[in-house]
Amino acid sequence: MDLKNKRVTVVGLGNSGINAAILAADNGAEVMATEGRDTPELRKAVKVFDGKKIKFELGGHTKGFVEGSGLVVLSPGVEDSSPAVKWATELGIPVIGEMELGYRFCKGKIIAITGTNGKSTVTTLIGEILKDGGLDTVVCGNIGNSLAGEISKIKKDTWVVLEVSSFQLEKIEYFKPAISIILNITDDHMDRYAKFDDYYNEKLKIFKNQDKDDTLILNYDANNLRGLEKSSKAKTLFYSRLGLASGAYLKDGRVTCVPGGSKTDICAVTDIPIKGDHNIENVLASSLAGCLAGAGAGSINGTIKRFKGLSHRVEPVGTVDGVEYIDDSKGTTVDSTLRALQSSKKPVILIAGGKDKNSDYRAVREAVKDKVKHLILIGEARTRIRESLGDLVDTREAETMADAVALAHSLARSGFEVLLSPMCSSFDMYRDYKHRGDVFKEAVRSLKDRQKIS
After folding, report:
1. Under DSSP, is residue 324 helix (H, G, I), strand (E, B) or coil?
2. What pTM did the predictor assign?
3. pLDDT tens-digit profile of 93-126?
4. Among 23, 105, 134, 326, which one has the highest count of C-beta atoms within 10 angstroms of its own C-beta?
5. Is there a contact between 287 and 257 (Cβ–Cβ < 8 Å)?
6. E strand map for 207-359
């Protein structure tokens, strides 16, 4: 892509936007960067622009930053309702996303992973599988470090393991992974999309440019993914936890891959250290991708046995007075909380709530009825969650995470599990899900410290 002496406007200056601006500038573009927020953290972050051909504005968008541009690049969080996007449309300026910009400069082979739940776990596990298998690997995308920011590390023989969100897929044009994976598509981001089908169709864009030389991997156990092979030009392989499938499956307690038609034994279910049926599915998808990329079965086996999962994703924090505390702050969807509850073998005190994404909380009613003894609600969404679930179980509210953990401790009995799994995003009270999880962990540590003193 030739950007030399071309004016490029970047909208949004989070990690993705900052890296997009630098990538464009380093390739000869005159960059105009515009951001609606203005905070001390942002002013510190944009110091990386010093010495580069980048002009920026904070605290609002002005039309002059868009006029005269040959290309507008959006950060994933920027919606079409943004004034900058409207001006670009009125002026007939092409609009792409940061991931699309990164793709146009990417020399490596991409494994792209999307889904409502499990993306980060699968992206991380595939990355570890390929690295342990001796393959040059870069892990990036929605997981935290943008593709645009990793381009300098990517060579022709590099495998790029890329976590992809629906927001990133909204503004692709030529994006074409060698291997694309859809794990599941369930209710999420209904605060951004008018209806579920809009969200669903954005996810399907991950394979829209693939051809016969590429591979699409789908979860056969997700009913709304079956039949998608008819819409894809790529070779399609399914994985299944519940029955035989064309790419990978679970049989007699063992994970088996058949990417080329011949069976490859990977590991026993008992070898998988991360708990829950959903994590068996994650291992199936990751193992299949690893086989396709050229990692050996023995190496994949070793990686799976060592893999401890991600922070804030059904992560044990500690035990106090016989009660186990679990941090699932990354459980920002109703389906992720459903999976966390299904994997629990103990009576649960559930801490939920946060910034509402207009989700249907009724989808966890059966699991709450079966597993949850007390429900503690925090954040903006607590009224809606109470309306959906409060008739099933003792339901209480707390103003802070520390209050919620203290209340859970007072209600719990030895053998219980206190699970933070919010079903919501974190931005009403915290910087992000990591911050929320860290506050939960600190509250649990305080309980343990008081236990030692007493």
Report:
1. strand
2. 0.90
3. 999 999 999 999 999 999 999 999 999 999 999 9
4. 23
5. yes
6. 215-219, 235-240, 248-251, 254-257, 264-268, 315-320, 323-327, 348-352
